[in-house]
User: Fold D-amino acid dehydrogenase from Massilia aerilata.
Amino acid sequence: MQEIIVIGGGVVGLTSAWWLLEAGHKVTLLERAPQVGTGTSFSNGGQLSYRYVSPLADVGVPLKALQWMFQEYGPLRFKPQVDLHQWTWLAAFLANCRADANRKTTHKLLQLGELSRRAMVQLEPVVPPESFQWRESGKLVVYRTRKAFEAATSKMESSNKTQVWSAADCAAHEPALAAVADKLEGGIYNGGEAVADCYLFCVKLAERIAAHPRFSGFLHADAQRFVTAGNKITGLQTSTGLVKADAYVLAAGMQSRALGKSAGISLPIYPLKGYSLTAPIRPEDVAPEISVTDFERKVLYARIGGKLRVAAMVDMMGEDLSLDARRLASLTRQVRETMPNAADYNSVIPWAGLRPATPNSAPIVGPSPYANLWLNIGHGPLGFTFACGTATVLADLVQGKAPPFTLEGLSLR
Assistant:
């Protein structure tokens, strides 16, 4: 049994803490905010997309990115900065924009997705699905252009969970799409996918962690830097003083990069700023029952409890959490156009979060250059989807067990 400090109180840190506790370790969880789950986990898209994974790095994306930046509804905005990390990350990302690299990453993420799905099922007795508004909605990806639709269907693998729908089928199965049925080419439906409130999940899991007999407590402080000696971490300097443990788990979202740097580790993560809108659903509204992703515009729609969650956009502007009025106005316009009667858009609550992404769109889980420092970072927009899976992998590695599949493409090395 080891004393372990988990750094980060979002969905990735909390799941890491739980599986380490269950593996027999004592755990302290450090979170700089007064409440868990209030960072990137707070108001994300809410989709649990275990079977539909689409790495951002893909062939043709660089050209698309240039086009997106000049479109009114463009999903990407890039602001060049005097920041070496921005440019080195971008170079690595471009190097991954190859068909073979995308296929390898997609295969690995599908393995991780299935592991995550099973791990979430294991949690049901601990955190009941209804306590965080979990619902098996299925996922429908709709396409506006014939080229994109044909490219997607040509890549499909046969499965009794996956169906190809015409534009008319999409509107028939999901009436919330009626207003844009004539603008769609078709869609691909994946059964078994789910939606849920990530923040509520964090809160409920934190309650169970707090009651665990091996849990040493929450420490609400700002992690500042690692203290090292040789190949080991000997302590963690925080805003409330130095804390020590046998081992450390870094799961602090974008803050992980600065903490890694304090120990001489360069972590290849960059903040992809995303926006979300949350609007109440009135009795007369026709909100989507199926989780919908608008492929070309990169906008997702999810009904979570009595609210509609819309998430979209990628801003590459460094660690800027400000709410850009123009981006929000653009998102609101296209939401009203796509699903005009789905929610009360006059009562929208906007939000922005920094999604820590790797160049190949796969998380990093496993060892670091230090013998007692473990990493669980870089989940990008799929932190909620992959958190339980990477937590189980992490717990196995800390125990000295082999992971359920090779970690090529998922490790720092």
Summary: The first helix runs from residue 11 to 22.
